[in-house]
Specification:
Layout: E1 5-7, E2 10-12, E3 17-26, E4 32-41, E5 44-53, H1 61-71, E6 78-84, H2 89-93, H3 117-128, E7 135-140, E8 146-154, H4 161-168, E9 172-175, H5 183-189, E10 194-200, H6 207-223, E11 239-248, E12 253-257, E13 264-265, E14 270-275, E15 282-286, E16 291-297, E17 301-302, E18 307-314, H7 318-332
Parallel strand pairs: 5-6, 5-7, 7-10, 8-9, 9-11
Antiparallel strand pairs: 1-2, 3-4, 4-6, 8-10, 8-16, 11-18, 12-14, 12-17, 13-16, 14-15, 16-18
Helix pairs in contact: 1-6, 4-6
The structure holds zinc ion (ZN).
Zinc ion binds next to loops.
Protein backbone atom coordinates (compact mmCIF):
# COMPACT_ATOMS: atom_id res chain seq x y z
CA UNK A 1 0.00 0.00 0.00
CA UNK A 2 3.02 2.27 0.18
CA UNK A 3 3.80 1.79 -3.44
CA UNK A 4 5.37 4.82 -5.04
CA UNK A 5 4.76 5.92 -8.60
CA UNK A 6 7.58 7.63 -10.47
CA UNK A 7 6.93 10.16 -13.19
CA UNK A 8 9.81 12.25 -14.50
CA UNK A 9 12.06 12.87 -11.52
CA UNK A 10 9.25 12.79 -8.95
CA UNK A 11 7.87 10.04 -6.78
CA UNK A 12 4.23 10.09 -5.72
CA UNK A 13 2.91 8.03 -2.82
CA UNK A 14 -0.74 7.00 -2.33
CA UNK A 15 -2.88 10.03 -1.48
CA UNK A 16 -0.39 12.51 -2.98
CA UNK A 17 -1.17 15.06 -5.69
CA UNK A 18 1.09 17.32 -7.68
CA UNK A 19 2.40 18.58 -10.97
CA UNK A 20 5.33 17.34 -13.02
CA UNK A 21 6.91 19.09 -16.00
CA UNK A 22 8.52 16.52 -18.26
CA UNK A 23 11.27 18.05 -20.44
CA UNK A 24 10.83 17.23 -24.14
CA UNK A 25 13.43 19.45 -25.85
CA UNK A 26 14.28 23.00 -26.79
CA UNK A 27 12.36 25.12 -29.29
CA UNK A 28 13.88 27.43 -31.90
CA UNK A 29 13.91 30.24 -29.31
CA UNK A 30 15.99 28.05 -26.99
CA UNK A 31 13.00 27.89 -24.62
CA UNK A 32 12.56 24.49 -23.00
CA UNK A 33 9.36 22.72 -23.93
CA UNK A 34 7.81 20.72 -21.10
CA UNK A 35 4.93 18.31 -21.01
CA UNK A 36 2.90 19.20 -17.92
CA UNK A 37 1.22 16.36 -16.09
CA UNK A 38 -1.16 16.74 -13.13
CA UNK A 39 -1.01 13.66 -10.93
CA UNK A 40 -3.80 12.62 -8.53
CA UNK A 41 -3.11 9.51 -6.47
CA UNK A 42 -5.89 7.87 -4.49
CA UNK A 43 -5.23 6.51 -1.03
CA UNK A 44 -6.51 3.12 -2.14
CA UNK A 45 -5.38 1.19 -5.23
CA UNK A 46 -7.49 1.06 -8.39
CA UNK A 47 -7.29 1.70 -12.13
CA UNK A 48 -4.84 4.26 -13.45
CA UNK A 49 -6.47 6.60 -15.94
CA UNK A 50 -4.90 9.21 -18.20
CA UNK A 51 -6.81 12.15 -19.68
CA UNK A 52 -5.06 13.97 -22.52
CA UNK A 53 -6.06 17.09 -24.45
CA UNK A 54 -4.44 19.30 -27.05
CA UNK A 55 -2.83 16.52 -29.09
CA UNK A 56 -3.93 18.87 -31.86
CA UNK A 57 -2.77 22.33 -30.82
CA UNK A 58 -5.89 24.23 -31.96
CA UNK A 59 -8.41 22.07 -30.07
CA UNK A 60 -9.38 24.04 -26.99
CA UNK A 61 -12.45 22.30 -25.58
CA UNK A 62 -10.33 19.44 -24.24
CA UNK A 63 -7.94 21.88 -22.59
CA UNK A 64 -10.88 23.50 -20.81
CA UNK A 65 -12.23 20.07 -19.79
CA UNK A 66 -8.79 19.24 -18.36
CA UNK A 67 -8.81 22.55 -16.44
CA UNK A 68 -12.20 21.65 -14.94
CA UNK A 69 -10.87 18.24 -13.91
CA UNK A 70 -7.78 19.72 -12.28
CA UNK A 71 -10.06 21.89 -10.12
CA UNK A 72 -12.07 18.82 -9.04
CA UNK A 73 -11.63 17.49 -5.48
CA UNK A 74 -11.76 13.76 -6.33
CA UNK A 75 -12.86 12.82 -2.81
CA UNK A 76 -12.58 9.10 -2.17
CA UNK A 77 -10.39 8.55 -5.23
CA UNK A 78 -9.25 4.98 -5.77
CA UNK A 79 -6.37 4.45 -8.16
CA UNK A 80 -4.62 7.25 -9.97
CA UNK A 81 -5.44 9.97 -12.48
CA UNK A 82 -2.99 11.70 -14.83
CA UNK A 83 -4.25 14.82 -16.61
CA UNK A 84 -2.23 16.36 -19.47
CA UNK A 85 -4.03 19.58 -20.47
CA UNK A 86 -1.93 20.35 -23.57
CA UNK A 87 0.04 17.48 -25.11
CA UNK A 88 1.16 19.40 -28.18
CA UNK A 89 2.45 22.64 -26.65
CA UNK A 90 4.54 23.41 -29.77
CA UNK A 91 1.38 23.44 -31.93
CA UNK A 92 -0.62 25.21 -29.20
CA UNK A 93 1.85 28.12 -29.41
CA UNK A 94 1.13 28.33 -33.13
CA UNK A 95 -2.68 28.02 -32.61
CA UNK A 96 -2.31 25.19 -35.10
CA UNK A 97 -3.46 21.60 -35.44
CA UNK A 98 0.04 20.72 -36.60
CA UNK A 99 3.58 20.79 -35.22
CA UNK A 100 6.04 23.49 -36.38
CA UNK A 101 7.34 21.02 -39.04
CA UNK A 102 3.70 20.66 -40.24
CA UNK A 103 3.39 17.09 -39.06
CA UNK A 104 0.37 15.77 -37.22
CA UNK A 105 1.40 14.58 -33.74
CA UNK A 106 -1.50 12.12 -33.85
CA UNK A 107 0.27 10.19 -36.63
CA UNK A 108 3.60 9.91 -34.76
CA UNK A 109 2.64 7.60 -31.88
CA UNK A 110 4.17 5.67 -30.17
CA UNK A 111 7.06 8.01 -31.02
CA UNK A 112 10.82 7.76 -30.86
CA UNK A 113 13.21 9.36 -28.35
CA UNK A 114 15.72 9.98 -31.18
CA UNK A 115 13.11 11.02 -33.76
CA UNK A 116 11.57 14.34 -34.80
CA UNK A 117 10.41 16.86 -32.21
CA UNK A 118 6.84 15.55 -32.39
CA UNK A 119 8.03 11.98 -32.21
CA UNK A 120 9.88 12.87 -28.97
CA UNK A 121 6.70 14.42 -27.50
CA UNK A 122 4.83 11.22 -28.38
CA UNK A 123 7.54 9.00 -26.85
CA UNK A 124 7.65 11.06 -23.63
CA UNK A 125 3.87 10.84 -23.27
CA UNK A 126 3.94 7.08 -23.93
CA UNK A 127 6.83 6.30 -21.57
CA UNK A 128 5.86 8.52 -18.66
CA UNK A 129 2.07 8.60 -18.80
CA UNK A 130 0.28 6.17 -21.13
CA UNK A 131 2.67 3.29 -20.44
CA UNK A 132 1.93 3.54 -16.72
CA UNK A 133 -1.86 3.55 -17.14
CA UNK A 134 -4.60 0.94 -17.39
CA UNK A 135 -7.23 3.17 -19.09
CA UNK A 136 -7.24 6.31 -21.23
CA UNK A 137 -9.42 9.19 -22.42
CA UNK A 138 -8.25 11.53 -25.21
CA UNK A 139 -10.13 14.79 -25.82
CA UNK A 140 -10.52 16.33 -29.28
CA UNK A 141 -12.62 18.72 -31.38
CA UNK A 142 -13.34 18.65 -35.09
CA UNK A 143 -10.48 19.72 -37.37
CA UNK A 144 -10.38 23.33 -38.59
CA UNK A 145 -13.41 24.31 -40.67
CA UNK A 146 -15.67 21.65 -39.17
CA UNK A 147 -17.85 21.24 -36.10
CA UNK A 148 -18.77 18.04 -34.25
CA UNK A 149 -21.73 17.13 -32.10
CA UNK A 150 -20.34 15.93 -28.72
CA UNK A 151 -19.58 12.24 -29.33
CA UNK A 152 -17.39 9.41 -28.09
CA UNK A 153 -15.51 7.25 -30.57
CA UNK A 154 -14.19 3.76 -30.08
CA UNK A 155 -13.17 0.89 -32.33
CA UNK A 156 -14.74 -1.76 -30.12
CA UNK A 157 -11.71 -4.05 -30.41
CA UNK A 158 -10.45 -3.83 -26.83
CA UNK A 159 -12.78 -5.17 -24.13
CA UNK A 160 -13.89 -2.39 -21.82
CA UNK A 161 -13.71 0.46 -24.35
CA UNK A 162 -17.39 0.30 -25.26
CA UNK A 163 -18.37 0.21 -21.59
CA UNK A 164 -16.25 3.30 -20.96
CA UNK A 165 -17.92 5.10 -23.88
CA UNK A 166 -21.35 4.09 -22.56
CA UNK A 167 -20.48 5.37 -19.10
CA UNK A 168 -19.21 8.65 -20.60
CA UNK A 169 -22.77 9.38 -21.71
CA UNK A 170 -22.05 11.68 -24.65
CA UNK A 171 -25.08 12.34 -26.90
CA UNK A 172 -23.63 9.92 -29.49
CA UNK A 173 -21.25 6.92 -29.47
CA UNK A 174 -19.65 6.25 -32.86
CA UNK A 175 -17.82 3.11 -33.84
CA UNK A 176 -14.88 4.45 -35.82
CA UNK A 177 -11.80 3.05 -37.52
CA UNK A 178 -8.31 3.64 -36.19
CA UNK A 179 -5.56 5.64 -37.90
CA UNK A 180 -2.00 4.31 -37.83
CA UNK A 181 0.24 6.40 -35.62
CA UNK A 182 -2.58 7.81 -33.50
CA UNK A 183 -2.54 7.76 -29.71
CA UNK A 184 -5.65 5.61 -30.03
CA UNK A 185 -3.77 3.03 -32.14
CA UNK A 186 -1.02 2.86 -29.51
CA UNK A 187 -3.61 2.21 -26.79
CA UNK A 188 -5.26 -0.48 -28.92
CA UNK A 189 -1.88 -2.15 -29.42
CA UNK A 190 -1.47 -2.22 -25.66
CA UNK A 191 -5.00 -3.65 -25.33
CA UNK A 192 -5.83 -0.67 -23.15
CA UNK A 193 -9.52 0.30 -22.83
CA UNK A 194 -9.77 3.75 -24.28
CA UNK A 195 -12.26 6.42 -25.28
CA UNK A 196 -11.89 9.40 -27.56
CA UNK A 197 -14.22 12.35 -27.04
CA UNK A 198 -14.88 14.76 -29.92
CA UNK A 199 -16.87 17.95 -29.46
CA UNK A 200 -17.17 21.33 -31.09
CA UNK A 201 -14.72 23.07 -33.36
CA UNK A 202 -11.09 24.16 -33.37
CA UNK A 203 -9.99 27.47 -31.78
CA UNK A 204 -13.37 28.05 -30.13
CA UNK A 205 -14.61 27.25 -26.65
CA UNK A 206 -17.98 25.55 -26.61
CA UNK A 207 -19.42 25.46 -23.10
CA UNK A 208 -21.93 22.61 -23.62
CA UNK A 209 -19.14 20.54 -25.17
CA UNK A 210 -16.93 21.28 -22.16
CA UNK A 211 -19.75 20.36 -19.77
CA UNK A 212 -20.38 17.06 -21.56
CA UNK A 213 -16.67 16.28 -21.55
CA UNK A 214 -15.98 17.03 -17.89
CA UNK A 215 -19.10 15.14 -16.78
CA UNK A 216 -18.19 12.29 -19.07
CA UNK A 217 -14.74 11.83 -17.56
CA UNK A 218 -16.17 11.85 -14.02
CA UNK A 219 -18.83 9.33 -15.09
CA UNK A 220 -16.16 7.04 -16.54
CA UNK A 221 -14.23 7.32 -13.25
CA UNK A 222 -17.36 6.25 -11.36
CA UNK A 223 -17.89 3.39 -13.80
CA UNK A 224 -14.28 2.25 -13.19
CA UNK A 225 -14.99 2.52 -9.44
CA UNK A 226 -12.30 5.15 -9.07
CA UNK A 227 -15.00 7.39 -7.56
CA UNK A 228 -18.13 6.40 -5.59
CA UNK A 229 -20.99 5.36 -7.92
CA UNK A 230 -24.14 7.40 -8.49
CA UNK A 231 -27.35 5.80 -9.66
CA UNK A 232 -28.18 8.77 -11.85
CA UNK A 233 -25.30 7.95 -14.21
CA UNK A 234 -27.22 5.13 -15.84
CA UNK A 235 -29.98 7.45 -17.00
CA UNK A 236 -28.14 8.91 -19.96
CA UNK A 237 -27.91 6.42 -22.83
CA UNK A 238 -26.01 7.62 -25.88
CA UNK A 239 -27.41 7.14 -29.38
CA UNK A 240 -25.20 4.51 -31.02
CA UNK A 241 -23.83 4.82 -34.57
CA UNK A 242 -22.23 1.78 -36.23
CA UNK A 243 -20.55 3.76 -38.98
CA UNK A 244 -20.58 7.16 -40.64
CA UNK A 245 -20.36 8.70 -44.11
CA UNK A 246 -19.87 12.18 -45.53
CA UNK A 247 -22.36 13.92 -47.82
CA UNK A 248 -20.27 15.90 -50.32
CA UNK A 249 -20.83 19.00 -52.44
CA UNK A 250 -22.22 18.15 -55.90
CA UNK A 251 -21.07 21.54 -57.20
CA UNK A 252 -18.86 24.36 -55.98
CA UNK A 253 -20.26 27.64 -54.67
CA UNK A 254 -21.60 29.38 -51.59
CA UNK A 255 -22.94 26.88 -49.11
CA UNK A 256 -25.74 27.31 -46.58
CA UNK A 257 -26.61 24.57 -44.06
CA UNK A 258 -30.32 24.06 -43.34
CA UNK A 259 -30.04 21.23 -40.80
CA UNK A 260 -28.46 21.55 -37.36
CA UNK A 261 -26.26 19.01 -35.60
CA UNK A 262 -28.01 16.13 -33.87
CA UNK A 263 -30.94 16.03 -36.32
CA UNK A 264 -32.27 12.79 -37.86
CA UNK A 265 -32.22 12.85 -41.68
CA UNK A 266 -33.55 10.61 -44.44
CA UNK A 267 -32.18 9.66 -47.84
CA UNK A 268 -33.04 12.43 -50.27
CA UNK A 269 -33.73 15.03 -47.59
CA UNK A 270 -32.49 18.55 -48.35
CA UNK A 271 -29.65 19.38 -45.95
CA UNK A 272 -28.42 22.61 -47.44
CA UNK A 273 -28.12 24.79 -50.51
CA UNK A 274 -25.18 25.77 -52.71
CA UNK A 275 -25.51 29.05 -54.58
CA UNK A 276 -23.70 29.95 -57.78
CA UNK A 277 -21.47 32.92 -56.84
CA UNK A 278 -21.65 34.28 -60.41
CA UNK A 279 -25.43 34.08 -60.82
CA UNK A 280 -28.65 33.36 -58.98
CA UNK A 281 -28.83 29.60 -59.47
CA UNK A 282 -29.04 27.41 -56.40
CA UNK A 283 -28.68 23.66 -56.05
CA UNK A 284 -29.89 21.59 -53.16
CA UNK A 285 -27.64 19.34 -51.12
CA UNK A 286 -29.56 16.11 -50.55
CA UNK A 287 -28.58 13.40 -48.13
CA UNK A 288 -27.29 10.14 -49.63
CA UNK A 289 -27.85 8.41 -46.29
CA UNK A 290 -30.32 8.19 -43.47
CA UNK A 291 -28.98 8.77 -39.98
CA UNK A 292 -27.94 11.52 -37.59
CA UNK A 293 -25.98 14.69 -38.39
CA UNK A 294 -22.80 14.20 -36.33
CA UNK A 295 -20.73 16.98 -37.83
CA UNK A 296 -20.54 19.46 -40.62
CA UNK A 297 -18.38 22.00 -42.38
CA UNK A 298 -18.43 25.51 -40.95
CA UNK A 299 -17.15 26.99 -44.19
CA UNK A 300 -19.39 28.85 -46.61
CA UNK A 301 -17.21 28.47 -49.71
CA UNK A 302 -17.08 24.95 -51.09
CA UNK A 303 -15.55 23.19 -54.06
CA UNK A 304 -17.22 20.24 -55.73
CA UNK A 305 -16.51 17.15 -53.63
CA UNK A 306 -15.94 18.99 -50.34
CA UNK A 307 -17.23 17.16 -47.28
CA UNK A 308 -20.35 18.95 -46.00
CA UNK A 309 -22.32 16.79 -43.55
CA UNK A 310 -21.05 13.86 -41.49
CA UNK A 311 -23.94 11.41 -41.11
CA UNK A 312 -23.87 8.64 -38.51
CA UNK A 313 -25.77 5.43 -39.29
CA UNK A 314 -27.87 4.12 -36.44
CA UNK A 315 -29.28 0.64 -36.00
CA UNK A 316 -32.35 2.06 -34.31
CA UNK A 317 -34.56 4.49 -36.22
CA UNK A 318 -32.72 7.82 -36.61
CA UNK A 319 -35.71 9.57 -35.00
CA UNK A 320 -35.15 7.55 -31.82
CA UNK A 321 -31.48 8.53 -31.86
CA UNK A 322 -32.50 12.17 -32.30
CA UNK A 323 -34.77 11.88 -29.25
CA UNK A 324 -31.91 10.54 -27.18
CA UNK A 325 -29.63 13.33 -28.32
CA UNK A 326 -32.26 15.94 -27.48
CA UNK A 327 -32.78 14.39 -24.05
CA UNK A 328 -29.10 14.38 -23.29
CA UNK A 329 -28.89 18.00 -24.45
CA UNK A 330 -31.72 18.96 -22.09
CA UNK A 331 -29.72 17.50 -19.20
CA UNK A 332 -27.03 20.10 -19.78
CA UNK A 333 -29.27 22.98 -20.90
CA UNK A 334 -30.48 24.14 -17.47
CA UNK A 335 -26.90 25.16 -16.64
CA UNK A 336 -26.53 27.16 -19.79
CA UNK A 337 -28.18 30.20 -21.15
CA UNK A 338 -27.86 29.31 -24.82
CA UNK A 339 -28.62 26.64 -27.38
CA UNK A 340 -26.97 23.35 -26.69
CA UNK A 341 -25.06 22.54 -29.83
CA UNK A 342 -23.63 25.84 -30.97
CA UNK A 343 -24.71 25.88 -34.53
CA UNK A 344 -25.10 29.48 -35.55
CA UNK A 345 -24.38 28.60 -39.17
CA UNK A 346 -27.54 26.58 -39.65
CA UNK A 347 -30.57 28.53 -40.77
CA UNK A 348 -32.98 26.86 -38.37
ZN1 LIG B 1 -7.98 16.30 -32.72
Amino acid sequence: MNESLTIGDRKFYPGERGVVDLPVGRLVSHAELDLRVHVFRGKKPGPRLFVTAGVHGDELNGVEIARKLIAHKFRGLKGDLFVVPVVNVAAFLLRSRYLPDRRDLNRLFPGNADGSFGSRIARTLMDEVVGQCSHGIDLHTAAGGRINLPQTRMADRVPGSREMAKAFGAPVMLKAGIRDGSLRASCENKKMPYVLFEAGEALRLDLPAVTFGARGVIRVMRHLEMLPARKKDQELPSAFCDSSRWVRAGVGGIFRALIPLGRAVEVGQVLGVIGDPMGNEESEVRSDYSGIVLGRTTGSLVDEGDALFHIGQTRAAPERAEERITRSAEEVLPDLDRPIFRDAHADQ
